[in-house]
Amino acid sequence: MSIKQKAIHGVIWTGIAKASMQIVLFLLMLVLARLLSPEDFGIVGMAAIVTVAISMVNDRGLGTAIIQKSTLSQEHLSSVFWGGIAFSLLLFAATIVASYPMALFFKNPLVQPVVAVQGAGFVIGSLGIVQKSILNKDLEFKKLAVMEVISSVASGVVSITLALMRFGVWSLVIGALVRDGVNVLLVWIYSRWRPRLFFSWRQFKELFSFSANVLGNDVVSYAVTNMDVVIIGRMLGTEALGYYTLALNLVKMPVTRLSGVVSKVAFPAFSAIQDDMKKLRKGFLKASALLSLIIFPLLLGLALFAREFIALFMGEKWMPMAMPLIILVPMGLAKSVGVIRWPVLMALGRPDVELKWNLAYILPLAACIYLGARHSLEGAAAGISLLLVLTFPLVQTISDRIIHLGDREFYRSIAPAAAAGGAMVLVTLLAKSLLLPLISSNTLFLFIGGFLIAAAVYMLVLLTTARPTLRNIREFIRPDGSSEKERRKKAASETNP
Q1: SS3 per residue for 95-156
Q2: Which of 51, 185, 190, 413 could join 285 via S-S bond, C-beta 3.0 to 4.6 A?
Q3: Which of 344-348, 408-412, 478-482 has the lowest mean pLDDT?
Q4: Would you report the helix, strand and coil content of the chain in percent, each value rounded to 5?
Q5: Using CA atoms, how far apart are residues 116 and 450, in angstroms rounded to an integer?
């Protein structure tokens, strides 16, 4: 099986996993929103300072170096395994120490035990970094897909059970640890690699030399990712942070889950063809087009029906999050199509690009959030979204230069989705304001009727104006990567040698 066939196979299996997880997590979020309060989600949002760090340490850094490096010895892997555990124990200890100052900063004593307990995720996750990275490197996406689905379901069952038993915020905390634990258990079952009682600083340092930029970027990205939580939690309080956290999660869910399908597969696949810039450029453009076609209508639909969605599925107590949710959607659109550039840069051994960008991004982001939060939660959300949208062209241009991509090639790849999405928004807004209220004022009717109109308009515009793009994507995802013309020519040659 070729690299491309493995990649396509990986996309399919990862897509199945992500789609299943998307459904599970979405339903879990709705159920927990009914059972828990905005304050519970606010505390978890404050503790996300730890959970985000856990995710970064467990999924990137040395794990990324394992995937990127072409040849690895058993000594390399064992050294990374034991070094990773030692590092995770230090982070766990640091988390416990930092939990009390965090509670004082956010003026909420419950933050301390929540942060301290969540810190155990560092240690749990470190036990599976090497095995998971090997599975990614070998493009074993079917196994990874099964692992993610099972761990997400287990986490959801535990969280809902504890919420029903009135454990409050602890239902979210313990559920997250269960997900990490089940994931590690499964990765040990699926991976045949086992560590040896061996550690070499030289071998460890060899891999660390690549991951240094990745880890450095993670530290900066960590600050960038949590800037909004810190400022909003401090200035506006736990309840406002709860509204913001859930709104952000809803916007990020299609971005992180669906974009993650492609980006997760893209990095090891691009690493395997890192010397063929033409293939890298082609893969980048096709992946960007595919992501935009899927994610644009989801996020725009979320903005169009935010209030109806909240009223029907979450309850009126969550209605204050409607406007922040709508305001954050443009940020989600920019992130969705930008996410694929980082696997390309990582495959080319250029993690420093993201590091430098995040360094330049910290102060403007803090200023925008602070100025916005002085007015309201909506102001903070507007500051975040506006900054990311305005700076998107700059960071995209920088990336295009590195992979030798023309200025307009990227924007042409996402133009069909943008055009269809724009038409969907205009027609649906007109229907919601003029047509549907004349028929019924029922919230459920408005939601279903508007949804059907939006879906019909999007598909109609796409099918009438973007057939070449759809055809190119269809050819791209074929296992042999051939066009219809090429396949006919091949069949004719086989029939008439």
Answers
A1: HHHHHHHHHHHHCCCCHHHHHHHHCHHHHHHHCCHHHHHHHHHCCCHHHHHHHHHHHHHHHH
A2: 413
A3: 478-482
A4: 85, 0, 15
A5: 45
